[in-house]
Amino acid sequence: MADVAFTPDQAAGRPARTLAGPVGARPKSRITAKRVMIYGALGLVSLYWLLPLWVMVMTSLKGMPEIRMGNIFAPPVEVTFQPWVKAWAEACTGLNCDGLSRGFWNSVAIVVPSTVLSIAVASVNGYALVNWKFKGSEVFFTILIFGAFIPYQVMIYPIVVILREIGLMGSVWGLVLVHTVFGMPIITLLFRNYFASLPEELFKAARVDGAGFWGIFLRVLVPMSLPIFAVAMILQITGIWNDFLFGVIYTKPDTYPMTVQLNNIVNSTQGVKEYNVNMAATLITGLVPLSIYLISGKLFVRGIAAGAVKG
Amino acid sequence: MLDQSHPALDGQSVSIRDLQLDFGSVSVLRDLNLDIHKGEFLVLLGASGCGKSTLLNCIAGLLEPTGGQIFIEGKNVTWAEPSERGIGMVFQSYALYPQMTVEGNLSFGLKNARLPKDEIAKRVARAAEILHLGPLLKRKPAALSGGQRQRVAIGRALVRDVDVFLFDEPLSNLDAKLRAELRVELKRLHNSLDSTMIYVTHDQVEAMTLADRIAIMKGGVIQQLAAPLEIYNRPANLYVADFIGAPPMNLLRGDLRGSEFRGAVTVPMVGYDFAAPPRDGAAVFGIRPEHVLVGEAAATAPVRTEVTVEIVEPMGADTLLWTRIGEDDFRIRIDGQTPIRGGDRITIGLDPARASLFDAATELRL
Questions:
Q1: Is B3 an interface residue toward A (CB < 8 Å)?
Q2: Which keywords does this chain's UniProt record carry (chain B) (predicted)?
Q3: Among A92-96, B125-129, B159-163, which is the least confidently predicted range?
Q4: Is residue B225 within a helix (H) or strand (E), and if so which, with residue range?
Q5: CB nearest to A208's CB, from B60, B92, B97
Q6: Distance CA B74, CA A203 (A)
Q7: pLDDT tens digit string along B42-68?
Q8: Distance CA B237, CA B247 (A)
């Protein structure tokens, strides 16, 4: 024993190099009661929140006879994709019986131009407000931001009148115009804050190098601002896709966006309630924003934070 | 109007007439006049907020003056765009375009000027050779070190073949060693190019080493415009005396009677080159720590006094002694090898010919 316990230092009569107590790297923590509690609680809460999704997916994969038996939590005995097919291509709303597909393509036709237009205009707005301050630019900005705080409901009827007068009432383009205008305050704020965070000297250097208003914007600032463009796209796509109010007011059955059509399918008062088709339709409609959240979660959080910073 | 040349500006590269700049009610630059000769290296020196960067931005055309005129190479450029002024500018943060390669950064200005491709290639190649950027041309700025980035920033001004280079604290973001290296490189560049250079800094070492002339600014006003040694030896006022020199000049308060300074020590100002005929009144006597005589030299000095050493700060090449004369701190710089310890009493000598005397009220040199 003795020859093992003594270090060379101790053997030579010198004090041991290593004293009593912790030495070196701290040991990795093991499973403790506290950890079990925490993860257990988190797991339970997540299960609780996932339950509706579980019920929706399961119900959408069952046939109506199986649904009538109850057991909404049980997985389907006989898996069928018929409800999904019906929701997409056959469900009736009013006179049309081509399912959600019509609404999906309407929504795409609304979201794409609205997003492109609002970002194109708002990014130039933000750039001009930061780098080319003009007389009254701060007042202009204040008014623009004020627009974000006016309740939509106040403007619904005036917009109906305006769209009627310019002949866009009921058309997809009328709704594109509305979404572009309503997206302006928040997206301008987003770009203004981002451009304000870029070093001013970069802008000065580009001016000395002879680049003009558009040259600086397109060749210097835009290429280094791709993250904020992605954030703006996420905000606009999810926001416009999920819109119901403007869609139901400013379009007509032929041009209804997907959200309105979904409502019409789910809330139809005639015939048997086809729960499986309703569930499938809801899932299909939610798929676009959901996939965007999932693909770009990090950027999305960043966008929220960027928008929240006061300029 | 831009090509109209003014014969009165012959030999002047940059000429600033009665320049005035206000931000709202705050006046940043006031009636500023400055003539910079062709090929001169002028340093604008001052503490932060003195208006030196503002002045540089006015010359560059990045800030619009409220009043006055700016001429570059004889042309009135007061209303001209930055790119039309024949200037190149180098910034403290380098301000390189992050998504472009070094080559892209160098050629951006030339492309904007719609120069032919082969001319662009020629100029980029020349700048790359002068600044040793050849192997870096295909890299992005993120892959460069601080010193390399600043060389690219200088190159961006170089390719534009400008008459006037503007530097806005270009070395302040670099570490001390690199700063000293690039300082020498800049001086070499100036010697080989013969262009006018205007250089803003708060670092007096950079100012002293680089400048043909230094303009010391305070509160938007030029305090003194002179060659580095002139500023060091004959500061025009108390502010300049205190600003230039590290450690700063020792200042003793007292009175001037006849041509004799009377304070905690009495100094007959024999051999002092008065800026104006001496007048009696409150005055400040200034002498640089390195001009105080000790040891054998002190014994033969015109004025002698005895002080107690409080603190000794050895710095290798030299040693700084902290003492007191009357109420005022008094610093003495001596050779680094001299054996002196805290508590020692030493005799020091003052030579009025190397001192400065200021009016206590106007703070101007007497």
A1: no
A2: ATP-binding, Nucleotide-binding, Sugar transport, Transport
A3: A92-96
A4: strand B221-226
A5: B60
A6: 27
A7: 999 999 889 999 999 999 999 999 999
A8: 17
Query: CA B67, CA B20: separation in Å to the nearest integer?
Result: 5
Q: Is there a contact between A210 and B99 if contact means CB atoms under 8 Å apart?
A: no
Rounded distance between C-alpha atoms, residue B297 and residue B287, angstroms = 16
Q: How far apart are CA B209 and CA B204, in angstroms?
A: 8
Q: Which residues contact B4 (CB under 8 A, 6 or more apart)?
A: B75, B76
Is there a domain that residue A150 lies in?
yes
What is the pLDDT, as a whole number, of residue A309?
Answer: 43
Domain boundaries, chain B: 7-238, 249-359
Is the CB of B60 inside 8 Å of chain A's CB atoms?
yes
* Residue B146 contacts A where some CB pair is shorter than 8 Å: no
d(CA A203, CA A214): 12
How many residues does this entry show for chain B?
366
pTM, whole model, 2 decimals? 0.81
Backbone phi, psi, residue A46, to 5°: -65, -40
What is the number of structural domains in chain A? 2
Residues of chain A found within 8 Å of residue B81, distances taken between Cβ atoms: 207, 210
Under 8 Å CB pairs connecting chains A and B tally to 60
Looking from the CA of A204 toward its CB, the CA atoms found within 13 Å total: 26
What the block records as the tokens of B69 is 């005129």
